[in-house]
Write a structure and sequence with these properties.
The complex is a heterodimer of chains A (281) and B (191). With 281 residues, chain A is an all-alpha fold. Chain A has helices at 5-30, 38-57, 76-99, 104-127, 141-164, 170-200, 210-215, 219-244, 249-272. Chain A has nine helices and no strands. Chain B has a single domain (4-181), classed as Alpha-Beta Plaits. The chains are: A mainly alpha (281), B alpha+beta (191). Bound molecules: iron/sulfur cluster (3 copies).
């Protein structure tokens, strides 16, 4: 299958938005740290989700008929649209609560509802592709990888917002670094698991082979995008931040761009391996 | 439950592609779109034991059509006779059905921005005629009818061929209803 760019950016921005919001809620509401970034992270999350949503409509031949999808609540597209809408709404309510100085408990509750929706949405984004017709996609590893990708992007985006804010303290930054490292390790494990899935998936074909990914025409996306930009560069940056006990804004921004590009590479690679069992036409 | 579908006798197919042309003409299938395509399988083996056969491909009229299952608008649906059809007025052009089809036999029309596929020429069958590919096949190797009705032509054709010579495309839970007849004396069926 050719790369469906609107869908690549749909899930990339949804992932960034979900990751940012979840990381922010965990850090600020659950751990009570860096509360100063609550508003800006929520705005970043909702804008990102909006951009993702708009990108998805570019994929549709007839977006004006989209409301027809309301009648089929079990379809992946219905789930994605509804959850994006609900998450957007929750973030708006959360922002209003922050603005009106609502109690900590209220903010925590709204934030937690949004975070649960966000994790669900990142998962559903990947789950919509799990289908028996496309062997390379037919695994639960794929949606989990979407969640991991969202987590890594979210960690870097939160890191950037923290470093930007004047009063970020060292211990908070160190915590975020540690969590980012864990997210990167999980992502690395999932990538290996995904390669194993591709290797043992039924109906093997050269279009979806491990050889194509590791040494064929997808190698540049895999090694350059997913491994170098998605794992090596961010891991090196986070390790350096931890060791030196500081994180220069430019380096954090570079890390964020790096994981975003890696996110594009992963999604593009997924589409390029998305050949049906038989691709007659 | 009735299931209208197509049976193709590969022993007889000469790969002339008349069916492809007839389909395009009857249904106004635009350049770049395909509803029906004749593939060449092989040649395989080493001289002098070489095999090859032609495989006309089209929608397999699945009983558990995955394209219908994933369609968010109900544009893809199963008609009363089991034929899988698309209501183009409802289609949002999301191409989700194209991903869900295990055989890649749906096509996206870049002009109308909706998905299309073989309809078994419902318009012709409604007036008592055979689909264009069936009518125009010079080898008489295509048959259409209700495979669940033992008295239908398709059921009789596959019964006559015998189970071991009747083949079906890989089934991943979609239960394709189309059948291909290929005797081993012509060639060995390739999965
Ligand atoms: S062959 Fe493909 S398009 Fe036809 S009914 Fe089956 S899943 Fe749908
Ligand atoms: S492209 Fe049209 S027929 Fe296919 S799933 Fe989307 S709405 Fe349904
Ligand atoms: S028209 Fe008949 S003989 Fe010719 S390619 Fe099609 S199925 Fe085969």
């Amino acid at each position: 299958m050719s790369i469906q760019w609107p869908l690549v950016f749909f899930t990339l921005f949804i992932g960034l938005g979900c990751g940012t919001f979840v990381s922010s809620v965990i850090l600020t509401e659950w751990y009570g740290k860096a509360k100063q970034i609550r508003t800006i992270s929520s705005i970043l999350a909702i804008v990102s989700i909006g951009v993702g949503g708009m990108s998805s409509t570019l994929h549709l031949g007839h977006p004006e008929r989209m409301f027809g999808a309301l009648g089929h609540p079990t379809s992946g597209i219905f789930m994605e649209s509804t959850m994006s809408f609900l998450l957007g709404l929750t973030i708006v309510v959360y922002l209003l609560a922050l603005r009106r100085n609502a109690s900590d408990a209220t903010c925590k509750m709204i934030g937690t509802i949004g975070a649960v929706l966000a994790v669900g949405l990142a998962f559903v984004n990947g789950d919509a592709y799990v289908m028996a017709s496309i062997p390379a996609w037919n695994t639960w590893i794929l949606p989990v990888l979407y969640v991991a990708s969202a987590a890594v992007m979210g960690c870097f985006s939160i890191d950037m917002l923290l470093v930007r804010s004047e009063d970020a303290d060292i211990t908070t930054l160190a915590k975020v670094n540690r969590v980012t490292l864990i997210a990167l390790i999980i992502q690395a494990i999932l990538i290996v698991a995904y390669l194993v899935h591709i290797a043992i998936a039924p109906y093997p074909d050269v279009t979806r082979s491990v050889t194509r990914v590791l040494a064929g025409n997808l190698a540049i996306l895999f090694w350059g995008g997913m491994v170098l930009l998605g794992l090596v560069v961010p891991t090196a940056l986070v390790t350096k931040f931890s060791r030196k006990n500081n994180a220069p804004l430019t380096s954090v921004k570079f890390g964020l761009v790096s994981v975003l590009v890696a996110g594009v590479a992963f999604r593009a690679l997924m589409f390029l391996m998305g050949s049906s069992i038989k691709q007659f036409f | 439950m009735s299931q209208r579908t197509m049976v193709v006798d590969l022993d007889r197919c000469i790969g002339c592609k008349s069916c492809e042309v007839a389909c395009k003409q009857e249904n106004g299938v635009i350049l770049g779109c395909t509803w029906n395509k004749v593939l060449t399988v092989g040649p395989t083996g080493t001289y002098p034991n070489i095999q090859m056969y032609y495989l006309p491909t089209m929608c397999q009229e699945c009983k558990e059509a995955q394209c219908v299952k994933v369609c968010p608008t109900g544009a893809s649906y199963k008609g009363e006779d089991g034929t899988v059809l698309i209501d183009k007025e409802k289609c949002i052009g999301c191409r989700y059905c194209m991903m869900a089809c295990p055989y890649g036999v749906r096509t996206f029309n870049e002009e109308t921005k909706v998905v299309e596929k073989c309809t078994l020429c419902t318009q012709l069958q409604a007036v008592g005629e055979q689909p264009a590919c069936v009518k125009n096949c010079p080898a008489g190797c295509r048959f259409v009818g209700d495979i669940d009705d033992p008295n239908s032509e398709v059921a009789k054709v596959i019964q006559k061929a015998g189970n071991e010579n009747v083949h079906v495309l890989p089934d991943v839970g979609n239960r394709p209803s189309a059948r291909y007849i290929l005797h081993s004396k012509t060639a060995t069926w390739k999965e």
